[in-house]
Amino acid sequence: MATPTPRVQVPRSATRGEVIEIKTLIEHPMETGLRLDSNGEVIPRKIINEFICRYNGEVVFRTDLHEAVAANPFISFSLRVTTSGRLDFIWNEDFGAVYALNHTLLVD
Amino acid sequence: MAETTVAQEVTRRTILAAAIAGGAGLAGVAVAATPEADADAVKEARRMTGKVVTLSPRLHLLMPSHFPNGYIVPFTLRIDSKMTDTDHVRQVQVLAPRNPINPVATFYFVPGRSEPVVSTRIRLAEQQDVLAIAEMNDGALLMARTFVEVETNGCK
Amino acid sequence: MRPLIKRWTRREIGRLAAFTLLAPHVARSQSRPKVLVVGGGSGGATLANCLSDGAVSDVTIIEPKRAYTTCFFSNLYLAGLRTFAELTHSYDALARRPGVTMIHDVATMIDPATRTVRLGGGATLSYDRLVVAAGSAIREDTIEGYDAAAMHLMPHAWKAGEQTLTLRRQLESMADGGLFVMVAPPDPFPCPPAPYERVSLIAAYFKQHKPRSKIIVIDAKNTFVGQDLFEDAWNRYYPGMIEWLPAQFTGGVKAVEPGTLTLRTEEDRFKAAVVNVIPAHRAGDLARQTGLADASSWCPVDPLTFESRLQPAIHVVGDAIIGGDMPKTAFGASSQAKACAVAIAAAFAGKEAATPRLTNTCYVHLTADDAWRNASQFEPVAGRIKAVHVNISRISDSAETRRGVAREAVDWYETFTKELFG
Q1: Mean pLDDT in residue range C355-380
Q2: Residue B3 pLDDT > 70
Q3: Best mutation site among C223, C392, C396 for testing chain B: the one with the most B CBs within 10 Å?
Q4: Set of chain B residues whose Cβ sits within 8 Å of the Cβ of A73
Q5: Which fold has domain C10-138+282-352?
Q6: Mean pLDDT value across residues C248-265
Q7: What is the 3-state secondary structure (H, E, C) of chain C?
Q8: B66 contacts in chain C (CB < 8 Å)
Q9: Rounded distance between C-alpha atoms, residue B99 and residue B125, angstroms
Q10: What is the residue extent of each domain of chain C?
Q11: Which tens digits make up the pLDDT trace of C331-341?
Q12: Does C250 touch chain A (CB under 8 A)?
């Protein structure tokens, strides 16, 4: 499997106290462990099992994902912004691989 | 009461077995918006999570009633809460009782930081009540359900 | 395996002939009823074949082009698997059929009041029944900057011909490692699986000739037909090459800059080596100008007869109609045209036509040897066209099964085009 590409849509700037919507998308087959390959063998489970958003280091939103989250997980959530700073987006995959993006948010 | 429980458990095992084997979903079992269906959903939630929940209009599960595939079904969840320190939702657990693996996702929110709204897409093996159980900061357990019909098995 | 097409059967010809025999006696000096067909695509050609076969009426087809290039299978040409000549079919045989007249001109105006059609060359033709089978048109008002000039730099290739050649040339010229971006349209549009078949086959071409290249699809939709089948194939055959971005993530493409091959979504810019924009569609201009389309920009028809609900004695078949569950395809247009022919024959005989059974079969290629199929049946139910039976391939199909479908697709193409154009 090729390295999953994560993408995030975040507004470049916001005003203090504003609610911003953040959209995330990561390419990933979310293999459930229920499918059989053409030889009749079970394709082992391998999914993104967790998504975390940190705002200036603090976890502000988190998701546990299970097999029923559709392939290429799309998660859109909203944050109430306070100060400028760094947004970190982290996807944890089964067996320890981690994918991450970060974004600088300007808040006035 | 025990007999009803056993009968429902057998039905659920049959559903799960059929779904795993890739068999056709239940034919024509529509779950109407009735007090009985609500009570069943509450019992289902208890069986799946051990939690005693109350159906609540504060919890909104927004999904299409009908979707052309079970592969990428739109899902939005919204909770009526100002997300203050004294009144906020801590987490929401989403379950698909008729999928081969029932848990879908759990969303964790932080007061003053994240809003109680989230969207994603989910897989459904067959038509069913999708359940959401919200745990509030005061320990209250709220539930919502929404019935979704899908034309294909998204879990194959 | 016999291809799943609904051939023009003897029974159907018999039904048409029966209507003819029951027709009121006409004086020897009068000619047969006149049916005009605007458009020589699969709908128009099928109508001409049916009406002339059953000796129901004289049929005149108005079609500006001298030969027909099929949109179906044009994705195979884009991938280098078919030649352009193999997609193109002469109208000579159709024009020579007894009872059929073909006029290579453009219909510029239809006057329902006088039952006449004006042609670009100046002639005016009269009709007893008119069938508009002129297809759909691309909307030029939905993506800022995507106008007629832009179409040369960022081809849609959604009308087979010059556009198809342009896109192929651009793909051939693209360097290895380049980015191909497709903008996929909102529903409804002609041939729902075709954009994703195009992605699959261009990926096959890239894999063989330019393997470091990438493909991004920016969709106006949040899901598409056969999405599970496509994404499974993309993972298996072209891992890491294709990214599909739904509208709920990007907001859709808002504007294009053709000079720099750049696309703008709500929050992002994409710069590509080759851009294929497939815009939103609507019914063709002539149908809309004639008052055959409603506020949706598509043509409401009676699904029993395909007669327009807005203009009497005018029928509409194919891409331009409000098709209900029936997708906009060449196969479907032909099926509708057969039902329409029976209905017209019945009308001339003063009888009611039987309820039509409509069919559509889509063959969709994932690679040269792996194709899937959706064979469906439709019926008019409560005034709309409803799917009554759907038979679609599964992800779990064996490679052998899919190879069989690919072979069946080739057989279908040969048979279908021969049926249409002779």
Answers
A1: 97
A2: no
A3: C223
A4: 120-121
A5: FAD/NAD(P)-binding domain (3.50.50)
A6: 97
A7: CCCCCCCCCHHHHHHHHHHHHHCCCCCCCCCCCEEEEECCCHHHHHHHHHHHHCCCCEEEEECCCCEEECCCCHHHHHCCCCCHHHHEEECHHHHHCCCEEEECCCEEEEECCCCEEEECCCCEEECCEEEECCCEEECCCCCECCCCCHHHHCCCCCCCCHHHHHHHHHHHHCCCCCEEEEEECCCCCECCCHHHHHHHHHHHHHHHHCCCCEEEEEECCCCCCCHHHHHHHHHHHCCCCEEEECHHHHCCCCEEEHHHCEEECCCCEEECCEEEECCCEEECHHHHHCCCCCCCCCECECCCCCEECCCCCEEECCCCECCCCCCECHHHHHHHHHHHHHHHHHHHCCCCCCCCCEEEEEEEECCCCCEEEEEEEEEEECCEEEEEEEEECCCCCCHHHHHHHHHHHHHHHHHHHHHHHC
A8: none
A9: 5
A10: 10-138+282-352, 150-277
A11: 999 999 999 99
A12: yes
Quick check: C66 contacting B, CB < 8 Å? no
pLDDT above 50: residue C179: yes
What pLDDT digit, counting tens, does each position of B47-86 carry? 999 999 999 999 999 999 999 999 999 999 999 999 999 9
The token pair that represents A27 in the structure block: 């390419």
Count of A-C CB contacts under 8 Å = 36
Give partners of A (≥3 CB pairs < 8 A).
Answer: B, C
Identify the CATH assignment for C150-277 out of 3.40.50.300, 1.10.357.140, 3.50.50.60, 3.30.2310.40: 3.50.50.60
Residue C177 is predicted with a pLDDT of 98
Contact C279, C185 (CB under 8 A): yes
pLDDT value at position A1? Answer: 52
* CATH 2.60.40.10 assigned to A6-107: yes
**Contact C36/C130 with Cβ under 8 angstroms?**
yes
Chain B within 8 Å of C225 (Cβ-Cβ)?
A: yes
Query: Do the beta carbons of residue C66 and residue C325 sit within 8 Å?
Result: no
Place of tokens 């002609």: C190
Quick one: tokens of C279?
Answer: 């815009």
Average pLDDT over residues A24-49: 92
Would you list the domain boundaries of chain A? 6-107
Q: Does this complex have an ipTM over 0.85? A: yes
Q: Which residues pair with C283 in a beta bridge?
A: C136
Exposure string over C16-29, b if 16+ CB within 10 A, otherwise e: bbebbeebeeeeee
Contacts of C396 in chain B (CB under 8 A): 22, 156
Q: How far is B23 from chain A (nearest CA, A)?
A: 13
Domains of chain B by residue range: 2-150
Domain B2-150 adopts which CATH fold? Immunoglobulin-like (2.60.40)
Tens-place pLDDT, residues C282-304? 999 999 999 999 999 999 999 99
Strand extents, DSSP E, A1-108: 6-9, 13-14, 19-26, 48-55, 58-65, 74-80, 85-93, 98-107
Residue B24: band (very low, low, confident or very high) from pLDDT cuts 50, 70, 90 = very low
Average pLDDT, chain C: 93
**Pick among A66, A83, A92, A105 to test the B interface (most B CBs inside 10 A):** A66
pLDDT, mean of residues A25-38:
91
Nearest to C395 among B72, B121, B156 (CB): B156
Asked if the domains at C10-138+282-352 and C150-277 fall in one CATH topology, the answer is: yes
CB contact under 8 A, A7 and C249: yes
